[in-house]
Amino acid sequence: MLISGLIGVKEIVMADRAGFCFGVKRAVDAIVNTLESSAEGAEIWSIGMPIHNPQEVARLRAMGLQVAEDESAIPEGATVLIRAHGEPRAVMEKLRSKGGAIVDMTCPHVRRAQERAGALSSQGYDVVLLGDALHPEIRSIMGYVDGPVDVVADAAEAGNLPKRSRVALISQTTQQEELLADIAFVLVPKTGELCVCNTICKATVERQEAVRRLAGRVDGVVLVGGKESANTAKLRDIARANGMDVLWIESADGMDGGWLEGKTKIGIAAGASTPQWLITDVCNKIARM
Ligand code: SF4
User: Ligand 1, residues 17, 110, 232: which to mutate, most atoms within 8 A of Cβ?
Assistant: First the structure.
């Protein structure tokens, strides 16, 4: 998308894939529908932030959503929404025992990673997960593995793993395919049988490719997304690796006039957890500047 006629900045070029992915949109729509259709005073909870975007979470909270630190804080009989990252099997069992409705919005791509990890573990594979050990999606996938499981963030960590006879390598959905391939390359010589599951979701890859396509076309990229969002952090890394100057902001309030100085063509990219209204706000703010 080209917007011309702005002062200083002459053009804004939107990344051709930006903002809410299928899984996040599905989860947010379900939260809004549940909040709007529930009786007044009904308790509607999520475990942890339903998406990695503080502004969108504030909007949902204002509509009545309550956010618990963990499953122990969910009251008996309350409705609980499971976010796109999913929850470990044990947490789901505890929630069922509380007797409330469960609206399970685990993204189908995450569900597939949970099921592959669980099935391959029960077939005798040691599971290696590529991802961030502290990320809720990795914790939810680990919660479906009964046998040995390791989490690695890069090829160096994979290199520290012991030799094994059977390994299943599975990825957090937001990782980069090149990194998954690098780790498979490291594991091949130290594994008798290696099963690689590409569980990286297309939405992530599409947003990454859209950022790469901005390289050479713009003087800088404004990246809109929550600072806790792993997939937005990946977009920043990709933009920088492709030589682009990046301004990562959560909302239009973070827009920095100084950063725009000397730039005539600005790219706009956004993580998969960024709602359209925040992207529009940022475009409008640049236009006003
Ligand atoms: S990024 Fe992919 S896996 Fe994650 S919620 Fe979106 S569609 Fe699902």
Answer: 110
CA of 166 to the centre of ligand 1 (A): 28
pLDDT digits (tens, 9 = 90+) for 240-276: 999 999 999 999 999 988 999 999 999 999 999 999 9
**Residue ranges matching CATH 3.40.1010.20 in the chain:** 2-20+203-288, 109-200
Among 224, 281, 218, CA closest to 248: 224
Cβ 25 under 6 angstroms from ligand 1: no
| C-alpha distances out from residue 240 to 114, 132, 156, 204, 208, Å | 32, 20, 22, 17, 12
* Best CATH choice for the domain 109-200 from the list 3.90.1150.10, 1.10.287.950, 3.40.1010.20, 2.60.120.260: 3.40.1010.20
Residue 11 per-residue DSSP state: E
Q: What is the pTM of this model?
A: 0.86
